Amino acid sequence: MDRPDNLMVVEGLMVVDGEIDRDTYVRLLHERVLDRFPRFRQRARHAWLPWPGQWWEDDPSFDLDRHVREVRLPAPGDDAALEDHVASCLSRALDRQHPPWEVHLIQGYAGGTAIYTRLHHALADGTALFRVVLSLADEELTTEPVSDRPGLLHVAQSAVRALPGTGRLLRTPMVAEHLLLARRPASPLSLPPHHGKRAVWTPSIDVADLHGLRRATGTTVTDIVMSALAGALRRWLLTHGADPMVDDLPTMVPVDLRGSAALRAEDLGNQFALVLLDLPVGVDSPLGRLNETAARMRAIKDSPEAWLTYGLLEGMGMMHPRLRVHATDFFARKATGVTTSVRGPDQPLHLAGLPITRLWAWAPMSADQSLSTSIVGHAGQIHVGFKVDAAAVTDPEALVAGLQAEIAELIALAPSR
Known about the structure:
By secondary structure, this protein is an alpha+beta fold. 35% of the residues lie in helices and 24% in strands.
């Protein structure tokens, strides 16, 4: 699925309040990631036996210095400077002759350190890679007991747990028809992919500020942020010439199939499904968008769609490479982009004794998609970021401003005590 204009690289940012020197970070990386996950010392190589394919092998010339870079932002070390550094890397392919990952230890960002990670999707899916990154934290994250089941069996049982009940099974043909016939509406976001990408982000959102709205509407934090995203996209489309009767925009939402058990080395790889969520961009009121978003999110939870797409992804993996490209493009072009929503730990985290203040994790866009949205919850805060195709979205700051305005309007709807 790698394309020059849309790389299969999971991008992440972690902001730490204080400066971490390179030696300390490298030591922690060794102890908490490399020693625990040998995959990060391996590269993918082509082999013909026992059958043609890509296989992992140890990199005989593995050198950690090749993968960890230290940079210092130019003054004043603000968001704009960090955005420029990230933008300069987003379209650069990772070196396939070595393990496909890199870390940038970025000093001088707002008086602290920003840790920018670039991890190829072949290593693992976004949820697993997010948990790998969090394993760097000083805290021992609470998880369910580790299962002793073999990896392949664990995947199969995870898929079975995702199987629908009888009522949902009866809806499988309708869901399959939706997946096959769904079409992305024409919009200013529907442009051929461009090599240039940009990443921007909003100020943190305090979960406590959403409590009154959640109680009054019976919605979740995810419902609220997703509806704010729909509103921000509506604002952006209207200012870029879209018709006021704009169509809803479909986005792909990854669904993890592992469960919450502790991540083991053999659990890397990709164990996820995709669901197609129509963001209610066509609804013209904030409360209407929130209600519609919540209803659509509930419908997805009760749908066999994740089970179906997991089977489709597995099937496409066994196709001839040329057929696989057409199949992945067929489904990817049904969506404008990808939206990941990940709930991190509720407790504050630290790295080398310093507080971790913000987290983002962007899924890669495929085919001609132009927008990847990251929604990460951590320690009572929500962090939202956008990765965009620079040709389709020349002003991503407008999405940031639109989402902030939407959140403010939604909060104002909650009745005062």
